[in-house]
Amino acid sequence: MALLSSKITGTVVKFLHIEGGKNMNQRQRRMLLYLLSQKHYQPIQSICQEFGFSEKTIRNDIKAINSYLHRNSVNSFIEAKRGSGVRMQLQEQEEEYVRYILESRVLEIKPDLDRFYHGMILLLFTQDVYTMDTLADELYTNRLQLKEDLQCWESMLRMFQLKIEKGTHLHIAGEEQQIRLFVLYYFYQRADKAMIMSIEPVFLQEHKALFRRILHIYEEAYQQRFTANALHHFSIYLGIMMKRIQMGHGLRDAVCYKGNETVHRLLQEYFHMDVNALEMQFLEQMIESGARQWNRSMLHNFALTKETKELANRFLTDWFRNMGRLRMRSCRFCFPYCYRPQYYADSMVCGFCIITITR
Q1: Residue 327 three-state SS
Q2: Looking at residue 117, which CATH number applies to its domain?
Q3: CB within 8 A of 277, min separation 6: which ones?
Q4: How confident is the model at residue 335 (pLDDT cuts 50, 70, 90)?
Q5: Which residues pair with 330 in a beta bridge?
Q6: Phi and psi of 217, rounded to 5°?
Q7: Which of 231, 272, 289, 328 has the most CB atoms around it within 10 Å of its CB?
Q8: How far is CA 288 from CA 131, 229, 241, 257, 325, in A?
Q9: Which whole-number Å values give the CA distances from 269 to 40, 207, 261, 272, 324, in the listed order?
C-alpha cells in the first residue's frame, strides 16, 4: 500500500500537467470500469451487446483508452487476444491507481461537449486539413454522429456570425475577431479541472510566465489589480491570439494605433513574429473592457446612447414578436447537465448555450 501511495503521489503531478491529449468520454470510462471488474477475456460481441455499440466503435474506444492510460503513466492496458476477446492486463498494484484516476479526473463532461472542444481545437488550432471522415476518425465517432454534431456546432457559431464550410474540407469561416471571441466564450465554460487538463496545455504551454508579466504591465498602466479570474481569462486570450497569428490568421486591417510599447516589444521578441497595430488594439480594448469594474457612482451616471436605445428596442420588439413561437424543449448539447429551465427557441441549443430567435 505504501508503494501504491508513493506511485499516486509521484505521478499525480505529471497527471495534472499533461501536454495536450484527449480525454476519455463517458462511454470509454464505462467500458474501462467494466473491464476492471472482469477477470477473464470478454468476447468483443459480448461487449457490443453490453454497451449497444458496433464492433468498430468498441475497437476505437479500446485504442483511445490505452492511449489515455499511457499518457497518464499507467503501464496497464487493454489486451486483445484473437479468439478469446479482450481483458484488462493489469500490472502489479495498478488497479487501485487506475480507479483513483477515473474517480479524481473530471470525466463527467458529456461526449457531445468532449467532441466539440476537441473538434474545435483540430479545426482552428492545427494546420491539418479535415474532411467529414477524417475528423470523425480523429474524434472516435462515425460520420452520422459527426453530421449531427455539426448541426449543433453551427447553431453555436451563428451567434458569432461564423459558419462551417463543407467543401473539399471542413473550414470555419468568418471574421477573425469573431472566431477568437467564440473560442474564448465557449472554452471558458469548461470546469476548472477540465480547463487545467485540456485547455491550458493548448493555449498557455510554457508561455504562462510571459503572459502574467504582460498582464502585470497592464495592471500598472490601468492602475488597478485584475481579479484572478480576469488574469486567467486574459492569459487564455493571449494564447489564442498568438496561436492564430502563428498559423497565419492574424488580424489584417490597417489601423493607426499605438499600443503599449513594452508589451508590443515583449510579444514580438518572445515569439519572433510581427504583432501589428490592430492586434494590439483588439487586445487592449478587450482587456480594458473586461477589467472595468463598475461602482455605484458609475452606474448612477451611466447614460444610454441613442444607438444603444435603438438596438435595445429592436431586440425587445423581436423578442416579444416571437414569444408565441417559443416552447420548452431539451437541449441536445448540454442536457442533462443544464438544469436551468427556460424558454427555448425552435433550435437545437438551449438558452444557456445560445439563444436563437427564429424569424
Answers
A1: strand
A2: 1.10.10.10
A3: 254, 255, 256, 257, 258, 259
A4: very low
A5: none
A6: -65, -40
A7: 231
A8: 39, 15, 16, 15, 39
A9: 58, 13, 12, 5, 57
Domain termination residue (choose one: 76, 104, 132): 104
Q: 92 and 29 in one domain? A: yes
The total number of structural domains in the chain stands at: 4
Domain enclosing residue 348, as ranges: 318-359
Handedness of CA 13, 239, 231, 109 (dihedral sign): negative
Q: Which of 104, 135, 159 is the last residue of a domain?
A: 104
- 116 and 193 in a single domain? The answer is yes
Distances (CA, A) of 256 to 86, 141, 180, 279: 64, 47, 22, 11
Residue type, 262: T
Q: Does the predicted model carry a pTM greater than 0.70?
A: no
CA distance 319 to 359: 10
Query: How many C-beta neighbours within 10 Å does residue 3 have?
Result: 9
How many Cα neighbours within 13 Å face the side chain of 349?
Answer: 21
pLDDT tens column, 18-47: 333 456 777 888 888 889 888 899 999 989
